[in-house]
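Researcher: Hi, I'm a grad student and pretty new to this. My advisor asked me to get structures for two proteins we've been looking at. I'm not sure of the right format, so I'll just paste the first sequence and hope you can take it from there.
Model: That works fine. Here's the first sequence with its structure tokens right after it:
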Amino acid sequence: MQPESGHRSSHCFPPRRNEYVAAALILSTLVPTATATVYPSNHKLYKFDYHPKSQGYQEPIRPLSKRQNPIPLIVTNSCGDTIWPGLATQSGEGPESSGFELGPGETRNMTVGSSWAGRVWGRTNCTTGDDTATCATGDCFGRLECEFSGQVPVTLAEFTLSGGVTGRQTFYDISLVDGYNLPVGLVYHPAGNTTNIPPNFVNAACIATPGYLMAPNRTGTYYTNSSFPMPYDTSQTNGGIADWCPWDLQAFPPSKPGDGIFPYPDDQIQRPVFDPCKSACASTNDPSACCTGKYDDPNVCKRSNYANAAKTICPDAYSFAYDDQTSTFIIPSGGGWEVVFCPEGRSTDILSTFGAQLQQIASSGQVTDQVKDTAMNLTYIESRPSGAANLKMPNLLAGVVAAVVAVVAAITL
């Protein structure tokens, strides 16, 4: 069916069920501490900001008429088809637009205030009017400009630019807690006080869509440069990731021939390339999947099959409520960000690779020459086990959380 006159829709991503289609660790100087439970946007206990500032921290008051110390926020579409990025502001001065159309290869340059907290996601298969956009994934109540988070499932890029006990740290992550729809990469644009952070410590990526994965290599130069090899997950192939989403969590599962009588859930039906996946919590709101009620305890709430699959595919991404310490990245405030949809390369594996170095940074408050040398050491990187092989928090990271508060002043002064 053709869109109505004056309307546009993308055809790379199947608008509905039966249509098939053919981007770190920002632990630049810190490791995350987070104690809050994270729920998907459609959950009744959902809160936007899971990394609030200390109650003792007083945020400076700035006039609304003029943005002071603007932070670059860039959105790039590397997908083969048009997407409609959505942006939601939880606090601070938001970007110039909260929703817009972005064609293949296009980039939108914006700025946000230095205390901005918000999220960015991609909407797909939208039919648009003057100020409307009805989308298959990430929909904002049918509006082009988003006022709230998009409809699940969506891959989220989340930022708190002025977090921590002093408000001088940036927290960020790639989250699959709301599910997954598009590959996402985060590229850090350093400020004057953060240029010493190795790029392979900060630029995270999650790629779980066939066709965007490059050949399996433990290291490479995607999202970094030749001096600082980026660690990647090596367990996945384009063929393998096609079936990563549990069958019953697919947003648009393909129809089963023969009256649907097939082995469940591992039937051999070919899935579409664009195969958005709901998280277990977003799909069912079950307390055991959402870590609510009697399950509101990290010792009680266990990872679901979805959380295990998502963490295997994207080791540096949030996959369920108690995933904070292997998924939240913290660096000194100041730099800008680029959110890249559909980056080519591989999912990054930064946290499990550089755990010891991040602990050293957290303890000393400095990126030492030794840490930089390790960040450049190809042999060291290739010797480290992949985070996808061990879904529990690495022991090397366990001591970092206690050191974070001490690091804040040392790094940001």
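Researcher: Oh nice, that was easy. Here's the second one.
Model: And its structure:
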Amino acid sequence: MWPPSQASKFLILLVLILVVIYCVFMDTLLYMRVQYYSIETFETSTQTTFQESPTTRLRALSYEDVVWIPCSVNPLCHPTVKALMVDHINHYIYGPLCAILDKALRISDRMLFLTPNTISCAHVFIAMIGANLLTCPNLSVRRMGIVLFQIRMFLDDLDGHVARERKHIRGERSEVGSLGYWVDGICDLIGVVAMMLGIFVYFKQYPPRRGYRGTSASALPYYQLKEMNAAENMEKDHASDVGISYKTKVSLKAIIQVIILFSGQMVLSSVAWNRYINVYQEMFENGNGYLAGRLVTFRSVRFFCATLMWRILNPHSYLHVLSLAVFIDKTWSLLKSVRYIGYVLLLLAVFVTEYLISGFEASVKTSVDGR
């Protein structure tokens, strides 16, 4: 029989593996759906430009006619630019759950007093409660805080779903500049700030430890708190000069630096992600010309990979990874390990995306067939 701690670790690892497998499987289905079935945004071009192509006749099939999961809860039915760039957890798990909850409670139809902006404001209060729980020394209490933050992210998905349902918009879409866009963004910002403040307060009260192993005792900072390695179980006065693990508190300055560096990554990720959603929506969904070119480019492997990159690096993915780290009590390890490399990956993604955008623009204007 496994100890409870080992069983808990195994269960968390098993759930994580299953979620990753599920997301990869859904990404594969999404790619096949884009390739082989009609897309509403480009239906005009499909009907008028590719009528003689056997491939086009296959692609003219409606996905709703062949799928057995209703499109009201199926995240693959309406592929849009934003749908291709939303993180995996929100798109494949929270999205369908929001649709199911909406159908069950008929929020969009009957609960008209429950506006999207009201839902957005509600998850701010949940974030405040969750942030308070994150400051507690007990891991179980901090895990409850993470559960509340996941509920906050679920409600963040729900407000967008309700807004689209009431406006009869099919598929994910950002209405840049609208009141709902700004309210949702501000509420999201408050929620993220609350989470980071909760983590900061916890580290301020219970600083992480920085260990020294096999270091000369005379070189160690004795004025700081020391903890001997449990396996060695020796008092300082009777310890040998080497071979002991001393763990000292990380300074408040170092904690602030790491928190700021990670927060900066989320800001950079958010700005870039929202910018590219707007750019791609203008390129593929808001234009009136080059219908054939837009369809071919939208279905290209390059575009799918470009959006997949931001599915992984968008701010919601950051929050999910951070939530997992808090849940398994590895928050400091995560923040410290990505404080620099995260910027490298984000800047590389920005440079690659800027380069690809010019190629996509040229492809939209020059593509005239399905090759």
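Researcher: Is there anything I should tell my advisor about the second?
Model: You could mention this: Residues 4-36 form the longest helix (33 residues).
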